[in-house]
Amino acid sequence: MRTRYVSATALIGVAALTVMGPRLAGLAQASVVTQGVDLGWIRVPAGTFRMGCVESDTSCLDNERPDHEVTFLEPFDLMGAEATIAQYAQFVADSGHPAPPSPEFPQAANHPVVLVNWDDAVDFCDWAGGRLPTEAEWEYAARGGQAGLVYGTSQELSRDAANFGADRCCSGASGGGDAWVNTAPVRSFPPNDFGVYDMTGNVWEWVDGWLDDQYYASSPPINPPGAATGYSRIARGGSWLNFAAALRTSVRLPFAQTGQTSNVGVRCARGLPTARVD
Q1: How far apart are CA 117 and CA 233, in angstroms?
Q2: Is the pLDDT of residue 190 over 90?
């Protein structure tokens, strides 16, 4: 596990942040701190839910079926919001990991980092002391303890609750509480009942495992790890660029492992430390 505290090398690396593009330049002093990086971990309680296409959803694809019961016997931690540009800048400064390119729109330090591929996301979560969430962990947290709702915590999607795109693919849009055509600052909308923000919209989020259309029919009922093989990596949650139906909580976006787009970011999970037995 990599340390989350700042080394002398990281402080020297602050000067190099200007090569990351204008969105990361000037963020060094805000992101490099002597007490480590606050990733805003939220404790997600143990529990049981139904994963996959909900009964009232008429838009589900075959890879969202069958719905099936999943149980988590132990709680786990999840970042309360998507990783921000400032947090990712700290990771780059501390680890020397290559910085992502800049998108073609302005972002501030509290916007979600984008243009990170699956391997970048894995490395960021490792540095953060965590890992990518499994699909089951992600969807359980996204539903926030509520059952049978198309958009996790609601039956219809509102711009007062999420940042998403135009009615037709594919462009950003704004309206109501969604004042951002592109990415929004994280935590701009109310959290769900687990206290987690932005599980619907803003940016897609990488999860662990592979997309296998047959996995739901045979996945373990307790803490399923996700498919070990498949034809694509997976992102969940929808984004600022997508129409509402793409933000349905059961949607599983197939995405190339090396893919980098301006609407995909990262959120990390971590298991709880086990009690020491002397």
Answers
A1: 10
A2: yes
